[in-house]
Design goal:
There is one protein chain. The protein is of the alpha+beta class. 57% of the residues lie in helices and 12% in strands. It has five helices and three strands. Strands 1-3-2 form a three-stranded antiparallel beta sheet. The chain starts with 15 loop residues before the first helix and ends with a helix.
Length: 115
């Protein structure tokens, strides 16, 4: 189901499309996809913004269930949960099929005009 989830202060799920709309959050997802798990300080080192700003972006990703975290001593480690991205993949696949079909129709029309 597309667009499920709301933005709220009471920890309800955030919409996955809202979560990935920001380029910083997409970069965080990319960084986490490359490693099994990363601590906050390693993620923060990849950006020009401070730890608080990175933490806020991670909170948005956590609310969309795209990121899970766990405490290891005094350190917080983050891990990607890619399952919610299936919604984005399904949405994009629909439009991929739409454009492929339209391009085939256009190609057929052009071939008919050449004849």
């Amino acid at each position: 189901m597309l667009g499920v989830g709301v933005v709220s202060d009471n920890n309800e799920l955030r919409d996955v499309f809202t979560a990935i709309a920001d380029p910083t959050r997409r970069k965080l997802i990319h960084l986490l996809a490359e490693k099994e798990e990363l601590p906050l300080h390693e993620l923060t080192a990849q950006f020009t913004m401070g730890r608080t700003a990175v933490s806020k972006h991670l909170t948005v990703l956590k609310e969309a269930d795209l990121v899970h975290d766990r405490k290891v001593g005094r350190e917080t480690r983050f891990k990607l949960n890619a399952a919610p991205l299936r919604e984005v993949q399904d949405w994009a696949a629909f439009y991929n099929k739409y454009w492929s079909t339209n391009m085939m129709r256009l190609n057929e029309l052009l071939e008919e005009e050449e004849e």
